[in-house]
Amino acid sequence: MSASPPNPKTHNGLDVPPVQAGPCAAWYEAHGKAVYRYFRFQLVPPDDAEDYTAETFLRAVRAAERYDASRAGVQTWLLTIARNVLVDERRSARVRRRAGIDELRDLAMDEPSPEERMLRREEVGAALSAMGELSGEDRELLSLRFGGELEIAELAQLLAVPAGTVRTRLWRALERLREQMG
Q1: Are 60 and 24 within 8 A, CB to CB?
Q2: Which of 15, 72, 150, 163 could be a cystine partner for 156, CB 3.0 to 4.6 Å?
């Protein structure tokens, strides 16, 4: 018997339709860091954030033919997929809402002096600890805005609410974050 011809609907053993590598690679290059930061702002450990980012882009490749630029920008579309990945992962794994500062080391910036690095680490730790005390809705909004770097209009489109509502919710979430930080 001869081997059957390869299935044109798979690529590299994955059930992924063949698409141009160019757009997907460009999407990752342009928006991969924002997707990763979104997961980190959601208090996901670095290794899991990398896995979730990979899953987000795998789903994007699988759905690339369905992407409609008239409905949303690429970053908004990718962060919608990322939100769904996170919801799916949390449903299946019941991920904890808190993480230690050592698990969040990649969010801290390197500063010139050890004293400045220590202060920055404490500030980032306090901010992320306070984020862990916020409601899921507040954390989601702040993560999309500051981790995912979405503009107000993009948030409004993603959340299906008016831009004014997004501004109000964002302002209130920031106020609650400030209260948590003391």
Answers
A1: yes
A2: 163
Which of helix, strand or coil describes residue 15?
coil
**Sequence-ordered list of residues with C-beta below 8 angstroms from that of 166, at least 6 positions apart, any chain:** 141, 152, 155, 156, 159
Per-residue pLDDT at 146: 86
- Provide the CA 182 distance to its chain's centre, in angstroms: 27
- Identify the CATH assignment for 21-181 out of 3.40.50.2020, 3.30.70.1140, 3.30.450.40, 1.10.10.10: 1.10.10.10
90, with CB counted inside 10 A (0-12, 13-18, 19+), is middle
- Collect all residues with Cβ–Cβ distance below 8 Å to 25 and sequence separation of at least 6: none
Q: Render pLDDT for 120-159 as a digit per residue (tens, 0 to 9).
A: 778 877 888 888 888 989 999 998 998 888 999 999 999 9
CA angle, 78 as apex, 35 and 162 as ends, to 5°? 105
Sequence-distant (≥ 6) Cβ neighbours of residue 131 within 8 angstroms? 41, 43, 139, 142, 177, 180
